[in-house]
Structures are given as structure tokens and as C-alpha cells.
Amino acid sequence: MKLPSNKLSILEALLFAAEEPLPAADVLEFCAEFANTGEVEKGVGELNRQYAEGGRAFKIRQVAGGFQLCTLPEFAPFVSALVSKTRTQRLSRAALETLSIVAYRQPVSKPVIEKLRGVESSGVLSTLLERKLVAIVGREEGLGRPLLFGTTPEFLSYFGLNDLSELPKPEEVAPPAGEEVTSPPGGAAQPAGAP
């Protein structure tokens, strides 16, 4: 049974206006026309079918436990050019390096991050905390009980991931020819192309 078009329009409007991925439970909170989360998911499926049939440049994806309107991959070069021109606050190389260690090794302590990076990392961790890309998730057992860090839903949203299982495997990320890579974070450095 198809959902009435007004329900689909409401769902589309909510997704269009939401600044973050919108969980199905939030759709129920803002729209009493939907009976349950299953009906919301059915609405997402119907909208995606209509978008595909109409040849639209976007679809609804599950991101960070919610739904979000996203452009299709074939339009990424155009959108990327626009975003790179308008985005004023980008992550530094140090921030990306630290963030990748947290993403792949979480929960991970600051001493472990610094051991892997080889440099003091208080400043970059503070920046990532302020930007809500990482969060304190506990304390390590043992001497000093250092804080443990993990990624956040904002991290998933920033990188367009639904969950951490969508992170690329270290072996899937090929380094530029002639450069060394540490794979996985914390592992032994190997030259590109090494077995």
C-alpha cells in the first residue's frame, strides 16, 4: 500500500530542512501523520524510488543513524568544487591524522595517540573536541587512568558515514607512489607496494 503524497511531502520537507541526519524517531516527533518508524522507512523508500524514476541528482541515505538528502556520487566533482570554495574551516593534516587514529583505534587514550603520531597532541585533540568530532568516552584502567577518546555522530555526519563499519579498510587506501604509510594506525610503517 502506497503512502499518501502529503505524508511523503511532509517527510521530504523535514529532511530538506534538517541540518543533521534525521532519525525516524524524530520524524514521528514532528509529524503525527506517521504511525511508526517502519512507515517512515517505507516513505524514504518511496521517495527514493520517485527520485530515481525522475532522474533527480539526489537520494535519501542513512547517515549516522538518521536520514539525509545527499547528492548522487556522479555529481561529487561539482559539489566538491563548490564546497571547497565556500568552506572556510577545514581540518588540518594533524587533525585528520589524529582523527584517523581515534576512528580506527577507539577507545584510545592521548598517550597512545601521541606514541603513534610521535608528537604532543593536546592542541589538536582540543580542536577535535570543540568541533565535536571526538568525545571523551571513559578512562583507561591503570596508572593515571588517562581519558579515552572515541568518535561522535558528528564525525559520521562530517564524513557521510552511517556507522564505523563504512570506514575504508586500511588496505583499501593506497598511498601515493613512493610514500610510506602506517597501516593500520599504530602498525609498522611500510613502503608503498610492500606485501
Order of helices and strands: HHHEEHHEHHEEHEE
The residue fraction in helices comes out at 40-55%
The percentage of residues in β strands lies in 15-25%
Structural class of the helices, strands and pairings? alpha+beta
Number of DSSP helical runs: 8
Indicate the radius of gyration in whole angstroms.
20 Å
DSSP strand count: 7
Q: Compute the separation of the termini in Å.
A: 54 Å
In one word, what is the shape?
A: elongated
Oligomer: single chain
Biggest sheet record = 3 strands, antiparallel
Summarize the structure in words:
This protein has 195 residues and is α+β, with helices and mostly antiparallel strands. It contains 8 helices and 7 strands. Helix 1 packs across helix 3, helix 2 packs across helix 3 and helix 5 crosses helix 7. The longest helix has 17 residues. It is elongated.
Structure characteristics:
alpha+beta, two-stranded antiparallel ribbon, 44% helix
Please summarize what this structure is.
Helix content is 44%, strand content 16%. The protein has 195 residues and is of the alpha+beta class.
Give the helices and strands, then pairings.
Blueprint: H1 5-17, H2 24-30, H3 37-53, E1 58-63, E2 66-71, H4 76-86, H5 93-105, E3 108-109, H6 110-117, H7 122-130, E4 134-139, E5 147-151, H8 153-159, E6 180-182, E7 189-191
